[in-house]
Specification:
This protein is an alpha+beta fold. 32% of the residues lie in helices and 21% in strands. It has three domains: 146 residues, Alpha-Beta Complex (Adenine-n6-DNA-methyltransferase TaqI, Chain A, domain 2); 99 residues, Helix Hairpins (Orthogonal Bundle); 146 residues, Alpha-Beta Complex (Adenine-n6-DNA-methyltransferase TaqI, Chain A, domain 2), CATH 3.90.220.
Length: 432
C-alpha cells in the first residue's frame, strides 16, 4: 500500500471563493439567448459533474464583482448552509459566495477530492444541523485530509467509488422511470379500467359509447359512481390521554403522525407507538382488523397504507374496512394514491393542513360493477409495485456497499488492489 500523508487543504489546493454581481443591475446578467459566463449556484450542484448553469453573467458582471474564474477540472463545494454539496467542473466557470473552488497545486486529484473533502468539511463544523452553520476560507484551508501520496492511487480510489456511484445513479433513474410508468398506469386504470378481454378499454375519444358522465367525471359505463361510505365501512380513531401511563405501551399498535414515513409503501406492519387495552377502553380509539386502508387527513395529507396487523389509529387518520363483495382494499389503496395530489390541494388550515371529517362522508369513488375487475386492476398495480420495491431494495444494498467502500478506501484500510465487492449494474437496467 502506498504511503498516506496528512495535509492541510490550503497546502495542496488553491481556494477561490466566488461572488454574486448586483441583482439590481440587469446589465450584469445574461438574458435568455445571450452569451455569457457560466455562474454556479448551490442549486446547480446536482451531480458529480457540472457543465451548464441556470444563470450566466456578462463581462460587466465579472468586472464589477468579486467573482473568480475556475478552470475546468476544478472541484467546487458549498460551504454555507448546505455544506458539502460538490461537483467537478466540466468547463470554466464562476461561482457565488456560498461555493468554494479548489484548484490542485499538483498533489491532489479532483475526483478523489470529490469524495474525501465533503465528509471532512462536515466533520469540521460542530453542528451542521444548526441553520446558518458555515465555514470560511481560513477554516477550509486548515481542514486536514488524509490522502495517498500517489496521485495515481487517488485516481484508482476515485474510479472504484465512481463505479458504484454510477450503478446507484442508474438504479435511481430506473426507479424514477418505473414510478412514472406506475403513475401513468394508475391514470389509465382508474379512468378506463380493464375490459372483459383483460385489456385496457379504448380511450373515451375512440369509444365514447363505453363511458358515461358522473359527478366525479367520465368513467366506464360498467362502473358505478358511489359514495365511498356505501362500499366500505369508514372509521377513525383517537388518542388516549397521555396523563395515564397505563394507557400506553400495552402492545396495541397505534398509527399516528409519527408513522408518516411508513406510509405510501403499500403495507404498514409496525408503528412508532403502542397503546394498551385500557387505552382502548378509556378513549374513542378502536382496534381495527388487519387489512384496513388508512389515510392521513392531517400533516402529511393524502398518505395511505394497508395494515398488516390489528391496529388502532389516531384522530389524524381515516380508515376503511373493505370486503370481498363491494370493495377490494388494494384497489382502494391505489385509488387513494392516484388522488393523493387532490387530497393535498383541498387540505386547509393556517397552522396544520387538514381535511375535515365531513368531506369523507361525501367522498365518491368510481367502482367497477364486477369485483373481478377490481382484483385485476389491483393485481396489475401490485405487479408493477413489486418491481419498484425490488429496485429500491437493490438501491439500498448498493448504498450500503458504497458506505463501506468509502470508509475502507478513504482511510487506507483496504488497498485499491484488493478484491473489492463492487456490484455490477442490475439486470433490470436494460429493461424497456
Amino acid at each position: 500500500m502506498s504511503e498516506w500523508a496528512k495535509v492541510r487543504l490550503k497546502d495542496i489546493a488553491e481556494i477561490k471563493i466566488g461572488g454574486t454581481p448586483s441583482r439590481t443591475i440587469s446589465a450584469y446578467w445574461a438574458s435568455e439567448g445571450q452569451d455569457g459566463h457560466q455562474w454556479c449556484a448551490i442549486s446547480d450542484l446536482k451531480g458529480r459533474y457540472i457543465s451548464e448553469t441556470k444563470e450566466r453573467i456578462t463581462d460587466s458582471g465579472v468586472i464589477n464583482s468579486n467573482v473568480k474564474l475556475l478552470n475546468a477540472g476544478s472541484f467546487v463545494m458549498s460551504f454555507k448552509l448546505s455544506i458539502g454539496r460538490g461537483a467537478i467542473l466540466k468547463s470554466p466557470m464562476y461561482t457565488n459566495e456560498a461555493i468554494a473552488g479548489f484548484e490542485s497545486k499538483g498533489a491532489i486529484n479532483s475526483d478523489f477530492l470529490y469524495y474525501v473533502l465533503p465528509q471532512a468539511a462536515l466533520r469540521s463544523v460542530t453542528d451542521v444541523a444548526v441553520k446558518g452553520a458555515t465555514l470560511n476560507k481560513e477554516s477550509l484551508g486548515n481542514i486536514v485530509l488524509s490522502i495517498p501520496a500517489s496521485e495515481s492511487q487517488q485516481g484508482c480510489i476515485a474510479n472504484i467509488l465512481q463505479t458504484i456511484d454510477e450503478a446507484i445513479e442508474k438504479t435511481e433513474q430506473l426507479i424514477e422511470k418505473y414510478q412514472q410508468i406506475k403513475a401513468g398506469l394508475m391514470n389509465d386504470l382508474f379512468t378506463r379500467g380493464i375490459g372483459a378481454d383483460g385489456k385496457l378499454r379504448p380511450p373515451r375519444a375512440q369509444a365514447p359509447e363505453l363511458y358515461h358522465k358522473t359527478p366525479i367525471g367520465w368513467i366506464p359505463r360498467d362502473w358505478d359512481c358511489e359514495l365511498l361510505d356505501k362500499v366500505a365501512v369508514r372509521g377513525s380513531g383517537h388518542t388516549p390521554s397521555k396523563s395515564f401511563p397505563e394507557y400506553w405501551d400495552g402492545g396495541v399498535k397505534w398509527i399516528s403522525l409519527a408513522d408518516s414515513h411508513r406510509l405510501d409503501k403499500l403495507y404498514i406492519s409496525e408503528t412508532q407507538f403502542e397503546i394498551s387495552e385500557l387505552g382502548l377502553q378509556n378513549s374513542s380509539a378502536i382496534l381495527h382488523p388487519p387489512g384496513i386502508v388508512v389515510l392521513s387527513r392531517d400533516a402529511g395529507v393524502g398518505k395511505s397504507a394497508i395494515t398488516k396487523a390489528p391496529m388502532a389509529v389516531s384522530q389524524h387518520f381515516m380508515c376503511w374496512r373493505c370486503d370481498e363483495k363491494r370493495m377490494h382494499n388494494v384497489f382502494l389503496y391505489y385509488w387513494l394514491q392516484h388522488n393523493k395530489r387532490y387530497f393535498e390541494n383541498i387540505a386547509m388550515g393556517s397552522t396544520i393542513l387538514t381535511i375535515g371529517l365531513s368531506y369523507f362522508k361525501k367522498l365518491k369513488i368510481g367502482v367497477p360493477s364486477e369485483f373481478d375487475e377490481q382484483k385485476t386492476i389491483a393485481s396489475s398495480l401490485l405487479a408493477l409495485e413489486g418491481k419498484i420495491f425490488s429496485m429500491q431494495s437493490d438501491l439500498a444494498k448498493k448504498k450500503e456497499v458504497k458506505s463501506g467502500l468509502m470508509h475502507d478506501l478513504l482511510t487506507g484500510k483496504v488497498s485499491v488492489s484488493a478484491d473489492l465487492p463492487v456490484e455490477p449494474a442490475s439486470p433490470e437496467e436494460g429493461a424497456a
